[in-house]
Amino acid sequence: MGRVIAKAYLDAYINISEQFPNLPKSARESNPVQAMEVIRPARLLANPRDTNQAVRSLDVGMLLYPTGKKEDIMLEVKDELGYLGWVSAEAIQIAGRGNTRIVNDYENDDSGNLDNFDDDSEEWEELR
């Protein structure tokens, strides 16, 4: 039985080591892009400096995908429809963070618990 287990570990080690040459040189290259969510009405701009050239308006809840370019507080993004442009970092947040008002209320609560939210309240349902 010991030989069978040792052989299984050896085979697993060989299989893993054979995959190393196929891995990307940088983990960042294979990392999926984190979606950003619009948290207040904004405009997708043609460039980061000229605020008069809007590509389109952005509604709250829209998803944006950063390209990695940044200038001051402006980020280059692609929207859900593929439009490329610049948006202020103040108008977006990482997608999936939930209702920030409830999270902020919880973080500002000195007790550090959710006792101030009743189980049947709308706020608790939004938090879930």
Q: Summed up, what is this model?
A:
A hairpin with a 2-residue loop joins strand 4 (63-71) and strand 5 (74-79). With 128 residues, the protein is of the alpha+beta class.
Give the helix proportion (percent range): 25-40%
Mean of the pLDDT scores? 77
- Taking Cα atoms only, what radius of gyration do you get, to the nearest Å? 23 Å
Instruction: Report the CATH superfamily.
Output: SH3 Domains
Counting helices, strands and paired strands, the structural category is alpha+beta
Q: What's the CATH architecture?
A: Roll
Shape: elongated
Number of domains: 1
Strand order of the largest sheet: 6-5-4-1-7
Q: In percent, how much strand structure appears in the residues? A: 25-35%
List segments where confidence is low: pLDDT < 50 over at least 5 consecutive residues: 100-112
Task: State the distance separating the first and last CA atoms.
Answer: 48 Å
CATH top level?
Mainly Beta
Count helical runs. 4
Annotation, overall tally of beta strands: 7
Order of helices and strands: HHEEEEEEEHH
CATH fold node name: SH3 type barrels
Describe the fold and architecture.
With about 130 residues, the chain is an alpha+beta fold. It has one domain: SH3 type barrels, CATH 2.30.30. About 30% of the residues lie in helices and about 25% in strands. The protein is built from 4 helices and 7 strands, in the order H-H-E-E-E-E-E-E-E-H-H. The chain has helices at about 1-20, 25-30, 100-110, 120-125, and strands at about 35-40, 40-45, 55-60, 65-70, 75-80, 85-90, 90-95. The strands form 2 sheets. The chain has a 5-stranded antiparallel sheet with strand order 6-5-4-1-7, with no helix packed on it. The protein has a two-stranded antiparallel sheet with strand order 2-3. Strand 5 and strand 6 form a beta hairpin. It starts with a helix and ends with a helix. Mean pLDDT is about 75; it is low at about 100-110.
